[in-house]
Amino acid sequence: MSKKMHITLTVNGKEEEFLAEPRELLIYTLRERLNITGPHIGCETSHCGACTVTINGKSVKSCTMFVAQADGADVTTIEGIGGPDELHPLQEAFKEHHGLQCGYCTPGMITRATKLLEENPNPTEEEIRFGMAGNLCRCTGYQNIVKSIQAAAATMNAAKEAAE
Amino acid sequence: MIPAAFDYYRPKDLPGVVALLQEHGDDARVMAGGHSLIPMMKLRMADVPHLIDMQDVDGMNGIYVGDTGVRIGAMTTQAELIDSAELADAAPILREAALQIADPQVRYMGTVGGNVANGDPGNDMPGLMQCFDATFTLFGPDGERTVPAREFYEAAYMTAREDDEVLTAVSFPTPAGGYAYEKQKRKIGDYATAAAAVQIVKDGGSCASASIAMTNLSDTPVFSEAAGAALVGTSVDGDAIRAAVAAMLNDIDPVDDNRGPVAFKNHVAGVILTRAIERAWSRA
Amino acid sequence: MKDEVTRDDRIAGLKGMGTSRKRVEDARFTQGKGNYVDDIKLDGMLFGDFVRSPYAHARVTNIDTSAAMEVPGVLAVLTAADLEPLGLHWMPTLAGDKQMVLADGKVLFQGQEVAFVIAEDRYAAADGIEAVVVDYEELPVITDPFESLKSDVVLREDLDPTADGAHGPRKHPNHIFTWEAGEKEATEQVIDAAEVVAEEMIYYHRTHPCPLETCGCVASMDKVNGKLTLWGTFQAPHAIRTVVSLISGIEEHNIRVISPDIGGGFGNKVGAYAGYVCSVVASIVTGKPVKWIEDRMDNLMTTAFARDYWMKGKIAATKEGKITGLWCHTTADHGGFDACADPTKFPAGFMNICTGSYDIPTAYLAVDGVYTNKAPGGVAYRCSFRVTEAAYFIERMIEVLAIELNMDAAELRRINFIKADQFPYQSALGWEYDSGDYHTAWDKALNAVGYDNLRREQAQMVEDFKSGKSRKLLGIGLCHFTEIVGAGPVKNCDILGLGMFDSCEIRIHPTGSAIARLGTISQGQGHATTFAQILASEIGLPADSITIEEGDTDTAPYGLGTYGSRSTPVAGAATAMAGRKIRAKAQMIAAYLLEVHDDDVEFDVDRFVVKGAPERFKTMKEIAFAAYNQAIPGIEPGLEAVSYYDPPNMTYPFGAYICVMEIDVDTGEHSIRQFYALDDCGTRINPMIIEGQVHGGLTEALAIAMGQEIAYDDMGNVKTGTLMDFFLPTAWETPHYTTDHTTTPSPHHPIGAKGVGESPNVGGVPAFSNAVHDAFRAFGLRQAHMPHDHWRVWKIANQLGLHG
Question: Are C565 and C755 in contact (CB under 8 A)?
């Protein structure tokens, strides 16, 4: 065991302070220390993306980041994207278009998709497949995930147009 | 998969980094995005008692495109490379290559410095830097020094960087002519079965100069001077390409692994290089 | 003016069978509020993890745990010596063998569990594992089953070499069983006398289900009340409870097993693993809850591999292509222990469905199970007990026969299909196929892809290749598969003596909503959505008013769980039957309320109406309330029912798949231009979910056919232990699929449904693999083993001399 560090994180808009060993992986910080269990652990070697969260505006696999690295960071998980009172259009679209089955990859998938649509609000099927290639799904074969993201993009673009 | 415990440092400047490296010697490692190192630590295949996180170190970021050359700070991420319009203009092959590295999440974290410095023969940037004839800037106890990329790699994970030095930037003359980065891999997120970086300058109907390097076909990246030379003065026709491929095959030394046996890799190296040359020539 | 509510509106309002009802599970999953095993956090919970063997075959001469006990946070280290007094150092497998829980003097595969470190958290456990010192004495390693049967090296020294195994006589110390079906002599005579015989060795390589969530559990022994609660990633929670009771001696009523949300199973989570036993023991020893979660390497290296069948085949036919006989001898690599998950009487699962979709009058199958120094398992990875192996075998043999006959493989299939009027069809290897219309499905598929044009284009590409114009070839991968799912009739299907029925219990609440509990457990299949649809149609209450609950053995009726596409055929039937019991009682209540005889009311969508007087009715909602509010003579209050359904037969879904694939001869890369999948799963409960199952199963098939494998080196080291090397396709490598269907209901199933979850994997693998083979058919390829990754495809081309 090494010396514990004082860590400050903002997670889903809430400031968190605690002492932790630097080797604590951010995914465990979220899941076990902060009880934010939406992000999951699938491969542990940064291939599957089930642990994807947004850190300082980037999609990051939180199983491959030490909590020490994240000290001072702003973190958004699936829990910060939308809840029962106001679902994010991606959450709506995944439900509507059967974009999930066992649900295990879904939080990482949706979290990654929020960033993809932020960078490319109107992606083609090919761009979605490439932009989501850091997230593995064992159940859906991706076809309905692509469809869900396209549908969410359309909803979000329509809302943006209506607001303008 | 839980790594062994370590002490963590986040120095603010390079002298601070070097002081830690001097203090801890072999027991210390610098880390940029961590996406090569952390999995190794989790698998307990890398033992790092002292981990130096570079994220707060000044002067390691930024892409500078000058009139004749480009300088990229070591902490620049693959995602930043891809997003840089200036770079896409000055050295478009970088974007083409970076898009073939890992996956979107990893590209947000993975850095140019990490990719070139750790000496993993599977990494894409070292071969590309050799193709560019880039120079690496190292900062150590005696200040800065530079090492040509073509002289940096000694063996797998063995480089010209001393234990108490940090790679801070890569610099290269603005590449000229046509380009191609061709990579065969098993899937997104995989290292190359074979990859080729090619820059060709065309003068009239013939090749004025050519620079060719390949990745993951030896324990270091392979810059083949002879392969480039085989194209110079030719119209880059079939014979010239075959000569370049033959020269390259002479320089590589692939090993048998899950991507396939040596005979396959040699064959694919030739195919990938042929395609890269043809594409670069078509853009020259 | 009041809007008229039509009968169609009432039907639509139920969201019953046949509607693409949106999934009720998705609200929690899309918001990160699923509850998976690793999400469980209990006060004082400890964490256990394994010291694993780096060797594939070695004696364990000493285990020194003293340094580990000094690691801060480590509380205990269990070894076989600690478990032996409890009789728990070995455990029974589902296949009638036994397996070490912790290494008892030796290890038989890399990654085998050697010691269990119990610590305050996962960090201390990991540090403790590093500190345990194990002395090994390496033994010769056998990774080849053929070599194993010839070797002097005895792998299982614990077994009496002369004694019978669980499935009869053993021929060699490393032999497990021989299992036979069909007529040996008759088949050999047919083959000897045949005009044409094609012979080939078909290898279906070792792979792994690899769900995104690994296996794990939390065991909590409440010593005050003597109750054990075990949460885990269990595809068969009730069977796990029985197994835990049998091996621990804790009475079954004192054990509560809970399968919470499961992050995919695909067969990986059927078996009983050392981690479960050790967690239970650790909780009993420490008096605290203990969690064990596999990491990905543990998962790939140690729990439940799939396939690894060497299938030697001979297929006989007339010159015109009418098949006269099929012979198959399979050598099955089971690893260090026989831990296959198959019904007891079927040690090679349903491999005897290997006559496939074809009317083959005479057939013989023999399977030899063999021990090697590989991980145990042999589970049905998205398949029903070796059906994938059987389907791959026959669909490859058909292609090889087509080559032998110089015949079109689509036409060869057509002339050998079992005809629609032959059902129910008795197969030569002992099954009674319930229903099918293969010719209709096949013609629809061939038309959909423009088969004749594809063949013309393929021939042109061969010409272009030969003339040096192109370096690409086109493969047209055909597959017509017949599955056998829904295990199964209790008369011949059991696991550990437990009959493979399933169950449903329904309680209707006074206000007309309901809860139904089943013996199955969803791992993504959407049971909470689809079982409610079956009930909605059966009992006339809206699916949205019906809660479906599974996975808690304290509340759910006993059932054998979810695998082998058995949930719809068995538990789905139980649901319908329980619903019909509800309806029968509701009919009596309705008749009483309407003051007519029971026979004078009839069910209509959501109500009982008086025959001939449709204006006189009672809705199911009204009837539900009456059941709790009226004293009805001769009828007990309440409205509940339970059904334990023992299926009279298996169901036989089928399908026609066509994969069109371009292959780069020089790099071995492929590109899938088109994939058409027609499935006939009988009555369709939720088309949206069926389509999703097909997409997912095809993608798993793509992975298996094109790259995924558990590969070993000669030392028995696993070469594919992380997701860098174990191929799971991303969205980028996965093609777009076209789905289609025909509907041939099962005549013996209450709602005619057959099950679909595994069809796309069973049929997909041959379609992808046949596409690769077909691309090279013009150049003389007969057989090349999977996976068809780049270098192996390159090797095909190289061996055929296509690289100049």
Answer: yes
